[in-house]
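Hi C.,

You asked whether I'd gotten around to modeling the 303-residue construct. I have! Everything is below, sequence then structure, no commentary in between.
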Amino acid sequence: MPNKTVSIHISTKNRKIDLEITLRKIQYLLERKDVECVIFDDGSSDGTFEMVKNKFPQVILLRNEISKGYIFCRNKMLNETKSDFTISLDDDAHFLTQNPLEKIEEYFDATPNCGLLALRIFWGIEEPKNITSHEKPQRVQGFVGCGHVWRMKAWRDIPNYPEWFEFYGEENFASLQLFKKNWEVHYLPEVLVHHRVNLKSRTKNNKDFGFRYRRSIRSGWYSILLFYPAIKVPRIIAYSIFMQIKTKIAKGNFKVVIPLFQAIMDVFFNIPNLIKNRNVLTREEYQHYTELKETKIFWKPEN
């Protein structure tokens, strides 16, 4: 990629071991002259900053002494980069595909209306035994934060990620802003990312579950209230709450009660932000958007 520059962005906090694994996995990319890697340490207290500084001196290292949240970090990195394309990875995610940058550039060059690439993501502690996929690239509604690539021209065409979302949902916000600006989000299965997480432990950990559940469900409501035509909003929100009651609370899953109530209160608290940032889809845009393929989140190996 002699005529292009690529930036790899990772926001992290107190994940020193995971981050070091990731950086060693992508070390071969960090050594390329056409690649820069930016790590934003969001107030870690576990020695993350020192580890990166000492072991990966080629990395551009930023730090918040006091945590400001990963959305703040992502906005700052994206707004300051001079690269043509920016890869965003979680601190516990790395590429399994060989030559990912060439595949990414080739696709962007061949698809000028594509503003963002959603990569194929495998979720699990161990690497999959089979990484082959027969999926084809396609336009989709959105993307996942742990593995995606921005065409920076598209990023500069939309508002920043909303920091008041705090956790979850900024990807849907950006996807809908891109849609309004006639940029497309495409799923590129040719590039595989390994997200080294244990989803079962997240579900069993009540504190972690409540934290993620509250922010996940409210972020969905935020997107609906920000972008969907007013006539559609009451029915969709009401149905969402009804389904949480029917599929969870009515079946004895009472650990969702408090975070569900908190999510509802979050919506009321953020009414000023919702009004200020509303960017409603026309009926035609809404129809077109809902006809797109849904966001590809989890990939499982083929048998």
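If it helps when you're writing up: The mean pLDDT is 95.

Thanks,
B.
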